[in-house]
Amino acid sequence: MRRPHAFIRLALSVVLLLGLAACKEEAAQASPLSDAQRAESLRPASAELRARYERSCAACHTSIDAKAPLTGAIAQWQPRLDKGMDTLVKHAMEGFNAMPPKGLCADCSADDMRALIGFMSQGKDNNQ
């Protein structure tokens, strides 16, 4: 009589383990998209900064295909930040590699670029 109970326990254990393995596989598949999903959802708190970000920065900094560092992906921004904010602002203002001058934000000042870079590199602005 103990054998049917042992079989049921074994079968339940196998089902549980298979279910856990499937959860682990789904989590692994979701992680590459998490940076892009996060970048897409982030917006500056400041209405003025948000307007500049949405019309000039978001197109590239929320798309993996653009090869730009994603908004809020701190690890992607760190090598750039290591060069110093002044260098990043200079590159943003003058253009650098695939980034066009001012990131196509014709009315952005160096201070605007500093604020936009600060937001994109951390996923938050000073007003949040």
Describe this structure in words.
With 128 residues, the chain is mainly α. It is 67% helix and 0% strand. The chain has helices spanning 2-41, 47-61, 74-81, 85-94, 110-122.
Distance between the termini: 65 Å
What is the number of helices? 5
CATH superfamily of the domain at 34-122: Cytochrome c-like domain
CATH architecture of the domain at 34-122: Orthogonal Bundle
Strand content: under 5%
- Element pattern in H and E: HHHHH
CATH class of the domain at 34-122: Mainly Alpha
Query: What's the rounded overall pLDDT mean?
Result: 83
Identify low-pLDDT runs.
23-30
The percentage helix is 55-70%
Number of β-strand runs: 0
Largest sheet, if any?
none
Overall outline: elongated
**Content-based structural category:** mainly alpha
Radius of gyration: 23 Å
